[in-house]
Amino acid sequence: MKLSGGSLARLINELSALPGIGPKSAQRLAFYLLSAPLETAEKLANALLEARKSIRYCSVCANLTDAETCAVCADPRRNRELLCVVEEPKDVLAMEKVRGYKGLYHVLHGAVSIRENLGPDQLTINQLMNRLREGRIKEVILATNPTMEGDATALYLAEQIRPLGVKVTRLAHGLPVGASLEYADEITLTRALEGRQELNK
């Protein structure tokens, strides 16, 4: 079915702009929403608007939260000497599936990438370094994705962190090269976490 314009075409177009949603999936979602009760579409629209208005970055770790600090940073039971550095908020969710990790997080919001013109100044690296200078963190686990950009970011961070006397480790490469944390299963992530190694100079 070819749509030249109108509300349906616009809805499909907007849905297909979402990551991982192709034109056919966008059509299926659009027709589902149009055939569902009006209340379903209203709930979805309201949830989206509420999330966009209320969710911000945690003032400590830069994760997504609807409070000043996220639930992990606010939890007094977390190990405050252990810090896991990840690229994106979705990576925190992936790591939290591994119930064995009880430390804190820091979200970079990307990786150093020449291709995307992302340098260290565009990430939350300054915020990370300020946290480390406070002297409470004893080990930093670099859990950037096993990609060229993730590896480059990990090496850059290791060089910046070592002079502070903080132990720097990297997740073991039980994770396939080029993969993303969000798609890794719990067993793979657990093994990668347990097999993390100190980054050598």
Supply the CATH architecture of the largest domain.
3-Layer(aba) Sandwich
Average pLDDT number: 89
Tell me the CATH topology of the largest domain. Answer: Dna Topoisomerase Vi A Subunit, Chain: A, domain 2
- Distance linking N and C termini: 59 Å
Primary descriptors:
2 domains, Helicase, Ruva Protein, domain 3, alpha/beta, 201 residues, elongated, 7 strands, 13% strand, Dna Topoisomerase Vi A Subunit, Chain: A, domain 2
Question: Care to describe what's here?
Answer:
β1 and β2 (64-65) form a beta hairpin. The chain folds into two domains: 6-54, RecR Domain 1 (Helicase, Ruva Protein, domain 3, Orthogonal Bundle); 64-198, Dna Topoisomerase Vi A Subunit, Chain: A, domain 2, CATH 3.40.1360.10. The radius of gyration is 20 Å and the shape is elongated. The protein has helices spanning 6-16, 23-35, 38-54, 71-74, 89-96, 125-133, 148-161, 186-194, and strands at residues 56-57, 64-65, 79-86, 103-107, 139-142, 167-170, 197-198. The chain is α/β, with parallel strands linked by helices and 201 residues long. Helix content is 42%, strand content 13%. It contains eight helices and seven strands, in the order αααββαβαβαβαβαβ. α1 (6-16) packs across α2. The longest helix is centred in the N-terminal third of the chain and has 17 residues, at 38-54. Strands 4-3-5-6-7 form a five-stranded mixed beta sheet. The model has no long low-confidence stretch (mean pLDDT 89).
